[in-house]
Amino acid sequence: MDFVDHSANFGKINHDTSVKRSKTELYSCYLVATLSNQKKMNQYLVTAYDYSNDGALQHRMSVRPHHLDGVKELKANGNYVIGGAILNDEGNMIGSVMIVQFETDEELQAWQLREPYISQKVWETVDIKPFRVAAV
């Protein structure tokens, strides 16, 4: 599944001059149209919390480049929807939330086996629930 970045063209095409839309609105419409034309994938909400022992944040930061490489691969393959770090009151990373999508449960399981935050024991708990992004 290939995604082409057309963001440079957003805002340039407006066939109905009575309707003015921001680049963000146009990009949102483009994403909904693009995703609705793609093969249907199962989406998942991943909520994970890090170990809380001394050195947990340093360990996360040492593994993070490998995790981000994997996320870039997921994105390139159309499996990454959105994600980011959960922060504590001091602004330190203590976990992660991701929305990912795969065609099969086997692909989800293969990702779990490859995910460095799992294999290198950054995430202490990982909760994966079926999810569906709203097409609004």
What is the gist of this entry?
The chain is of the alpha+beta class and 136 residues long. Helix content is 37%, strand content 26%. The N terminus is likely disordered.
Characterise the protein shown here.
The chain is of the alpha+beta class and about 140 residues long. It has a domain at about 40-130: Alpha-Beta Plaits, CATH 3.30.70.1060. The chain has four helices and four strands. It has helices spanning about 25-35, 55-75, 105-115, 115-120; strands spanning about 40-50, 80-85, 95-100, 125-130. Strand 2 (about 80-85) and strand 3 form a beta hairpin. The radius of gyration is 18 Å and the shape is globular. The chain starts with about 20 loop residues before the first helix and ends in a 5-residue tail after the last strand. The model is unreliable at about 1-20 (pLDDT under 50).
Keywords summarizing the entry:
136 residues, alpha+beta, four-stranded antiparallel beta sheet, globular
Given the helix and strand composition, which structural class is it? alpha+beta
- Beta content: 25-35%
| Poorly predicted sequence stretches spanning 5 or more consecutive residues | 1-18
- The succession of helices and strands, N to C, reads HEHEEHHE
Output the CATH topology of the domain at 42-131: Alpha-Beta Plaits
Instruction: Work out the oligomeric state of the chains in this entry.
Output: single chain
- CATH architecture level-2 label of the domain at 42-131: 2-Layer Sandwich
CATH superfamily of the domain at 42-131: Dimeric alpha+beta barrel
What's the number of helices?
4
Please write the CATH class name of the domain at 42-131.
Answer: Alpha Beta
Radius of gyration: 18 Å
Number of strands: 4
| Termini Cα gap | 22 Å
* Backbone shape: globular
